[in-house]
What does this fold into?
Amino acid sequence: MTHLSSEKDTNFCFPIPDVLESEGVKLVPFIPSQHAQTVYDGLVRASELTQFLPIGPYESPEALVQDFWSSRLGPNPNDTLFVIFDKVTENTAGFIALINSSAPDLHTEIGYVVIFKDFHRTHVASNAVGLLMHYALDLPEQGGLGLRRVQWMANALNAPSVGLAQKMGFAKEGILRWHRVLPPSKSVGHNGGGHRKGDPREGCGARDTAVLASYWDTWESGQREKVDEIMKRRVEHTSK
It folds into this structure.
């Protein structure tokens, strides 16, 4: 493997903890030299995990780092990436990102939620999402950032993603029609709409995007406790 950076992200607009941890999982900042191979291996075993995302498939760990990290998330001060470790098995279980963040406007977005196949229908997804919700919405005195809004955007056809967000208490705000252009390799997420002659991206499909969000006031009015219950319940169920 060629040289991969061993540096933690220092470009993100918010402070990044060395670890975010629950009873079931821990999230650590993505470091290419430590995590690229295991993340790549998880994607290779189930390439369909990125069918609704604008990344992959990749031919090597280096290609993953170059496209996903070095050219996309890493240079952007509004984005950062975490690797998910399952504490029950002590294995790498996926990755999750914060994107489109704004320190002045106190908001962020949970994105690139990828759970490796062995950890579907376990505690991993709910715990990873719950940890980032706490990190974002808890006040600084509680160890969080004190943000006002956490957004979640997904291909409207990606029912598992939309369902996970709703389970964790995100409110559906609407659908952005014709929101993104999709290359032919991502046609599974095409909205099924027609084409018009002369379109500058003729031959490429389109994505409709579901927009969901969680807010500081709903977080303070019972959502935090509901998220904690879901996180704990899933760990107890998986451990049995």
Q: What stands out?
A: The chain has a mean pLDDT of 94.
